[in-house]
Amino acid sequence: MDTRKPTGALEFDSPSGKRQSREVNYVLDIRDYRGRAGYPWLVIAANPQLSVYALWLWLLSEGGKNERGESWIKRRRWLFQDPNVAKGTGGQANADGKDGRAVKIMRENPTMSARNLVRLLKENGIRRGKDWVLKHKCD
Q1: 28 Cβ partners below 8 Å, 6+ apart?
Q2: Is the pLDDT of residue 89 over 60?
Q3: Lower CB count within 10 Å: N or C terminus of the chain?
């Protein structure tokens, strides 16, 4: 049984200095948003257990403004996935244990391009792609 409350309280001081409180809803019925631009996002968020194909079929059956392609769904679905759950058959994050060293090398060379950073990392025995470098350059 889910014991979480469907609402919460937001308390803040207004610009005039008065203490104010507002109720914040955590639960909504996505059916109320059918036909609106944000509806496909809500369907994806509410159904993380469904495959991309199943989500696509559902949105297709809804018709109208809600039709989205599979690639559109794939590009946005990750936003609503649990970061602590392993995804698919992809590799394990930091499998070789060299991420920390790679980030240190990238910090020491802040003006170097991503392509040159990949080369530099490879020379230091760290194999990372350009996408990884771009993603972790600011770590």
Answers
A1: 42
A2: no
A3: N
Query: Which residues have a Cβ under 8 Å from the Cβ of 127 and sit 6 or more positions away?
Result: 96, 121
Q: Does residue 2 surpass a pLDDT of 70?
A: no
* Alpha-carbon span 14 to 33, nearest angstrom: 31
Cβ neighbours of 42 (radius 10 Å):
18
| Contact between residue 42 and residue 23 where contact means Cβ atoms under 8 Å apart | no
User: Considering only CA atoms, which of 32, 34, 9, 4 is closest in space to residue 21?
Assistant: 9
Antiparallel, parallel or unpaired: β 7-13 and 19-25: antiparallel
CA 89/CA 3 separation, integer angstroms: 34
SS3 52: helix
What ranges make up the beta strands (E) of 1-135?
A: 7-13, 19-25
pLDDT digits (tens, 9 = 90+) for 127-137: 999 999 998 88
What average pLDDT does the structure give for the chain? Answer: 85
Nearest CA among 102, 94, 100 for reference residue 122 = 102
DSSP one-letter string for 22-43: EEEE----GGGGTTSTTHHHHH
